[in-house]
Amino acid sequence: MPWNMEDYPASMKNLDPLVRKKAIAIANALLADGYPDDRAIPIATSQAEKWYDDASPDEKKAFQKAKTPKKNDPHEHDKNAKKLMNAAVNVRYEEDHWVVRSDNAKQASDTFDKKDAAVKRGKEIAENKRSSVAVYKKDGTLQKTYDFSE
């Protein structure tokens, strides 16, 4: 069921209003792509919080001024985005950082100085997407895989 700023999941109640607005927009797009509510909500919330943490003050201001999400908003379907939502996650060491990246993604979703932090984030993303995460050693060999698909 799509949401708006007056009617949204209880789990979004305590979010900052701008994060909630972004989460609702993302969740509605995921629902339009066929995701069930129980998957769309945690994915959207996680992505909205990440967006808020990474967005510049100008980006936040522009989004605050953007129209509020409505239940019947049309959503453009991005085939690559749908592939990424179901893609496995990888934690690898690249260019002096631990990188968290989904299969076929052009860029990393996160980078970390510490492997433990990267693995934790990779698990969160994979669990939200109900996919898996592959953790690699510094030398590039596979260390461990965690499956959250069930």
What is the topological layout?
Elements: H1 17-32, H2 37-54, H3 57-65, H4 79-86, E1 89-94, E2 97-102, E3 110-112, H5 115-129, E4 132-136, E5 142-147
Parallel strand pairs: 1-4
Antiparallel strand pairs: 1-2, 2-3, 4-5
Question: How would you describe this protein?
Answer:
The chain has 150 residues and is α+β, with helices and mostly antiparallel strands. The protein contains five helices and five strands, in the order H-H-H-H-E-E-E-H-E-E. Strands 3-2-1-4-5 form a five-stranded mixed beta sheet, with helices on one face. Strand 1 (89-94) and strand 2 (97-102) form a beta hairpin. Helix 1 (17-32) packs across helix 2. The chain is globular and about 50 Å long. The mean pLDDT is 84.
Give the SSE order as H and E letters: HHHHEEEHEE
The count of strands amounts to 5
Structural class: alpha+beta
- State the share of residues found in helices, binned by percent: 40-55%
Strand order of the largest sheet: 3-2-1-4-5
Catalogue the unreliable spans. Answer: none
Strand content: 15-25%
Give the C-alpha Rg: 16 Å
Mean pLDDT: 84
Main sheet overview: 5 strands, mixed
**Number of alpha- plus pi-helical segments:** 5
Q: Gap between N and C termini, in Å? A: 23 Å
Query: What is the 3D shape?
Result: globular
- Oligomer classification: single chain
